Each structure stands twice: as C-alpha cells, then as structure tokens.
Amino acid sequence: MVAADDLFTLLRSLESELPGEAAAARAAVLEQLGVVIEEGSSLKTLAELASAIDQRPEIAQQQAIERAVFGDLAGAFERVAAATRRGRAVAVLESLRLDLREMARLGSLGAFDRLRERLDAIAGGLETDDGGEWPRPTLAVISGIFGSEGPAIYEEAVSRTPGIDYEWVFQYEK
User: Fold this and answer.
1) pTM, rounded to two decimals
2) For every one of its 174 residues, what pLDDT tens digit does the chain have, with 9 covering 90 and above?
3) CA-to-CA distance for 160 and 121, rounded, in angstroms?
4) 153 CB-near residues (< 8 Å, 6+ apart)
C-alpha cells in the first residue's frame, strides 16, 4: 500500500510544474536519458525513467538522477523501485515453479544453486508437472531476478567454484 501511494504521488509529480532551477535540472536529466514527459502518459514516462535509471551502474549516479527528477520525492521513487524489483523477482521465481518459502530457507548460496539447477534442467528439456510451459531460460529471466546487471553477475557466479578464495586470504598473510 505504501508503494501504491508513493506511485500515485510520483505520477502526480511528473505532471506538475517545478520552480526555476528544479525544472531546468529535471529537463536536463530527462534529455540526457532520452525520456520525454508527454501529457497523460506519466505512467509510461515513469516506466521509461525507471528503466533508464536501472541501466546506470553506479548507485550514486542513480540517486542523483532520482533527486534531479523527483526532488524531495526521490525516496518515494526508491521505495516504488524496490517494491517493483521484489515483485519482478517473485514473479520470475514463481514462473520457474520454485517454492519461495524454500528459497528463503536455503539462504543465498543454496537459493542460487536451486535457481541454477532449475535453469539447467529447463535448458535440458525438463517437463513441467502441470503440462504448462517454462519461461525461456534467457537473459531476461536472470535480469528479472537480479536486475540489469544480473546476466553479468550470474555468469561471474556460475564461472566460480564455491570455496575459499585463497588469493584473498593470502594477501593478508603477507
């Protein structure tokens, strides 16, 4: 409910005029991102803006954009974005027919292993129990769970063998 209230507040803020310098800062950031606010399409604009912000790798850069566009409502944008990321991840995990409670109990490494097992099984031709279809195990599935940097993070994680990183340990023993 908080995110829904914040969403409506953000939509109204995109439609409202800002005073002088704030309007110029917002316009500059929107132009840089290639996002245009069209009358009556604030939800579409917000989605485009959220996507453009998500593509920025640095959190400080994301926060600067949020402050320039929303001013004091930047915190509301972050709450909506966080709720959206969680919802997106849950939707993807459910489409993979993974038990969310079990995933939470497994911890981060166990949950990652379970996700990887499921994706590998789907790629290997695993049939669903209910005769439905699996989502295609593409980068979109990984992005849905881990965000825009997800595919790179996933590839890095899959390429490493779990265990002790001896290079990291030895640097402190010298």
Assistant:
1) 0.69
2) 667 888 888 888 888 888 888 888 989 998 998 888 877 778 888 888 888 888 887 888 889 999 999 888 888 998 888 888 888 888 888 888 899 999 999 988 888 889 888 888 887 787 877 777 777 666 667 777 777 777 777 777 777 766 655 555 555 554
3) 20
4) 146
